[in-house]
Amino acid sequence: MTETGMKALLQQYETPFYLLEEDKLKERVAFLKSRLPQNVALCYAVKANTFLIPALVADVERMEICSPGELAICRKVGVPMEQCVISGVYKQSGVMESFVRQGVEKGTAPALYTVESKAQFALLLQAAEKYHTVLPVLLRLTSGNQFGLDETDIEQIIAERNDQTALMIRGIQYFSGTQKTSLKRLKRELDRLDDFLDHLKETYGYAAEELEFGPGLPVTYFAGDTFEEEPFLQGFSELLENLRFSGKITLELGRSMAAGCGQYVTQVVDIKQNHGESYAIVDGGMHQLVYFGQSLAMKQPGIRLYSGQKTDGDHKWNICGSLCTANDILVKQMPLPNLHIGDVLAFQKTGAYCLTEGIALFLSRDIPKVLWVSSSGQTTILRHAIQTEIMNTPMLQKEKGE
After folding, report:
1. Would you state the pLDDT for residue 74?
2. Fewest Cβ atoms nearer than 10 Å: which of 53, 168, 370, 393?
3. Apex CA 254: angle with CA 30 and CA 190, to 5°?
């Protein structure tokens, strides 16, 4: 977004708002594809930003869905069923059965399902048998937390697979976290998966067709972050190419795809000096701006300043939001020129999670609108601002006779 383009938006739309740019999103996906092995497929984790789903349908092989709400969104925007990966630690039986039934009735190819527990395996098996279909599944291997199956549970499922033919076990899924900057850690994880897949083949005669792996590729959000992406991706690609596993590899990515295409735009509404400290109050706040791990205040993200007045000097500002809590500090001691009421701050790399992870209902302030700038330069509203007092107002029922 050029300065001229941003100023044109600011004349048309009130702050705060989220701004998503198609060009940046497409460029990022193309960059990742060019740096990864050609035989590796990409899966977009829609929890990173559901507003990007329509733009990514043609660029990724799959969409990973972790809730009934995300499933509803994908269906509303026209994601084909066979492109969906139904994941999540809690799969509601009614939702799963309804989804399977509708797929059978429409005669479409089934979605791919992950299995996080033996209970989930039984749930999907029951739905498949009830509607006389076969569902493809991936067994999620735990990384040592509440997600996924233990190795012994996976082995039991594999050992009994010929007795449960309504589920077609395509392979293994594995995800252990985000913001990974260590190739050694990724190597340990891939070696573990290689060894486990070899064990399943040697012990049970099971050759997995696919490995879906979440590498948790990092995003550099803050000043001082030292991470060289090019050599990292080269090293990671070599790890993938050196795997003994020869089946299909799908990488589940969210943050790495989405972060760079978004900005959070908020306006300075007040300026003050308290005990020698400079404060700028903005019309947004911590309820709408979230970086990785709630990392705000003590770290300094990329910010672009748009001012209608002369900007000079080099001052250190505490940027605070509009919530009535001392915790609503977006940045401390941020070096910026002299700020004025009406100046606009655009926080960079907010395309992933920022729109959904904040404490949006706190103080009943409006949820910001979401703007989309297409590759042709056209701006559209993907979501209007939402008044949250509707959700925070109690429903008071009158007593009978009143």
Report:
1. 96
2. 393
3. 90
